[in-house]
Specification:
Helix content: over 70%
Structural class: mainly alpha
């Protein structure tokens, strides 16, 4: 008995859900430009560099006063380089890979958007037709 009631509720909610959905062209408009992705990547690089320049020696000394590897003027970069001399190069490469992946994903979404818009418009027409038929007492 619960399943038919849930199905009925879902069917009744469909027009409201469709009405609340943003217009299909909003998909294309929401995609950032390649320039925006590049600016974002540059900003991430700068933020990482700022974080790596943070002097954390005093904090590390307060946490572990006896650690011989910590110097008072150490930055996060200094401490990480001691463990891995190439960490910064790899971190920058990783950020570059993320930016490239985002560019590829955005290009794919841009190609998909017209097809998705078409399918959503088709669904809207079908739902409107189905609702019109179900509400028309002369349809059956």
């Amino acid at each position: 008995m619960r399943a038919p009631a849930l199905i009925l509720l879902a069917l009744l909610a469909m027009p409201a859900a469709a009405a609340a959905a943003p217009p299909p062209e909003a998909i294309e408009e929401a995609l950032p430009s390649p320039e925006a992705v590049e600016r974002g990547a540059i900003a991430m690089e700068r933020m990482m560099d700022a974080l790596l320049g943070l002097r954390i020696g005093p904090l590390a000394q307060a946490i572990d006063p006896g650690d011989p590897d910590v110097r008072r003027g150490d930055t996060l970069r200094d401490m990480l380089r001691r463990d891995d001399p190439h960490f910064e190069e790899r971190a920058h490469q990783s950020l570059d890979a993320v930016a490239e992946g985002m560019s590829v994903m955005i290009a794919q979404m841009a190609r998909l958007a017209p097809v998705l818009r078409d399918r959503l418009e088709d669904l809207e027409r079908r739902m409107d037709g189905a609702m019109g038929e179900s509400l028309d007492p002369d349809a059956h």
